[in-house]
Structures are given as structure tokens and as C-alpha cells.
């Protein structure tokens, strides 16, 4: 508990409710993923998930709109967390740097439960075409959300070429790092892999910019 919370009794019930909500969501996710693995996604019902998580079905729907949402995740929750991290960054910091810090925060939280994320990845792979459309929607939502975050941070329009390029670059780096982390046999932290991907990508882009700039100055 923070010092501010300790001196503000009114905040303590809210903190407890928030922790209870997080525990319930985690229990639902754990129960659902285990059932999906044992019985298959199509053969698992919300009632079965609720029973395994020791909650009522109506409680399930207070946290997730459907069983699909448990499997595919909810980008909006991560987007709001990233927005909170961005609010702590210096106003004059480059948007790419600010968003990289927000993604590092996401990586550190994902690291806390590698087994669950690996299980989810394996389940998604096993669904083949069943989840292809949903995955497409989730990826599209991530791109949209990241574009909005970059635009907000940079003060640019969502369709500005820089906004789009920075958004895609950030998500590509994170996705590549996430994939590498899930398939690795060692225990190298995701945040270290992400930092390496960012560094190598930045080096490559810097060199590419130098080559393009030189070509333009020299008339192509």
C-alpha cells in the first residue's frame, strides 16, 4: 500500500475491491485456459468455467463478455494501463521513447505468468482457422489503440505517416520479442529480449535514414 493510501482511509475499500477484481479475473482465466486445454475451446461452456473458478455465471459476465474474450484477451485494459504509464513520462520526451517505456511495463507484467501466456499461445495455434478472424480483429484493435496512443503523445493526427510508422514499428518489436520469449528454452526475461529488439531495430533504422538522406542529398 502506498503512503497516500495509508493516510486516506477512503481509498482502502477501493484498493481492496480492485485487488479482489484482479484475483477473480485471474481465477477465471486460469480455470478457462485449463478447461480449454483439457476439453477443447469449442467443448467448454461458460457455466463450466464458472464452476471451475467457483463463481456464478453472472459473475463471469461481469468480467468477460464471452469465453472468446478470455482466450483472445482484452486490448482495452492494456491500453488504459499504458496510458497511465505515459502520464508519468516527461512531456518533451520523444513519443517512441515514452511508448517503449509503456511496452516495457507491459513486458514486466507479462513475465509474471509465462506459463499462462504460453498456454494461451498454444491454444490459439491449435484453433487454426477457428480463431483466425478473432485474432485479426485483436491485432487490428492493437494497431488502432497504439496509433491513438502515439497520436495523443505526439500531438499528431492518427493518419499522420509518422504516427502510423511509429505505431507499427513499436508493435512489431513487441510482437517479435513476445514470440521469441515464448519459444525460448532458457529463462531470459522478456524485457531483455524487448530491449535488444528495440536497440537493434533503432540501429537499423538509423543506418537506413543515413543511407536515404545521403541518396537524396546526392540526387538519388
UniProtKB/TrEMBL annotation:
One Pfam family in the UniProt entry: TetR_C_14
InterPro entries with a match to the protein in the record: DNA-bd_HTH_TetR-type_CS, Homeodomain-like_sf, HTH-type_TetR-like_transc_reg, HTH_TetR, MftR_C
Taxonomic classification: Bacteria, Bacillati, Actinomycetota, Actinomycetes, Pseudonocardiales
Keyword Transcription: yes
Gene Ontology molecular function terms on file: DNA-binding transcription factor activity; transcription cis-regulatory region binding
Name of the protein this chain belongs to: AcrR family transcriptional regulator
Keywords for this protein: DNA-binding, Transcription, Transcription regulation
Region ranges (Disordered): 1-20
Keyword Cytoplasm: no
Signal peptide: none
Chain ranges of the HTH tetR-type domain: 22-82
Amino acid at each position: 500500500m502506498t503512503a497516500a493510501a495509508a493516510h486516506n482511509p477512503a481509498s482502502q475499500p477501493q484498493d481492496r475491491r480492485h485487488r479482489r477484481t484482479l484475483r477473480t479475473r485471474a481465477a477465471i482465466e486460469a480455470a478457462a485456459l485449463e478447461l480449454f486445454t483439457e476439453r477443447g475451446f469449442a467443448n467448454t461452456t461458460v457455466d463450466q468455467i464458472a464452476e471451475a473458478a467457483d463463481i456464478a455465471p453472472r459473475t463471469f459476465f461481469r468480467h468477460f463478455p464471452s469465453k472468446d474474450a478470455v482466450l483472445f484477451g482484452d486490448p482495452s485494459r492494456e491500453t488504459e494501463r499504458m496510458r497511465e504509464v505515459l502520464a508519468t513520462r516527461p512531456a518533451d520526451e520523444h513519443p517512441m521513447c515514452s511508448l517503449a517505456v509503456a511496452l516495457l511495463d507491459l513486458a514486466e507484467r507479462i513475465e509474471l505468468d509465462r506459463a499462462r501466456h504460453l498456454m494461451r499461445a498454444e491454444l490459439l495455434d491449435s484453433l487454426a482457422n477457428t480463431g483466425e478472424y478473432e485474432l485479426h480483429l485483436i491485432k487490428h484493435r492493437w494497431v488502432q489503440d497504439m496509433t491513438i496512443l502515439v497520436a495523443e503523445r505526439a500531438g499528431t493526427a492518427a493518419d499522420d505517416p509518422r504516427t502510423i510508422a511509429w505505431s507499427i514499428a513499436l508493435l512489431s518489436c513487441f510482437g517479435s520479442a513476445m514470440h521469441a520469449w515464448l519459444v525460448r528454452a532458457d529463462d531470459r526475461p522478456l524485457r531483455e529480449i524487448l530491449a535488444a529488439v528495440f536497440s537493434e531495430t533503432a540501429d537499423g533504422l538509423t543506418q537506413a535514414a543515413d543511407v536515404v538522406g545521403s541518396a537524396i542529398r546526392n540526387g538519388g
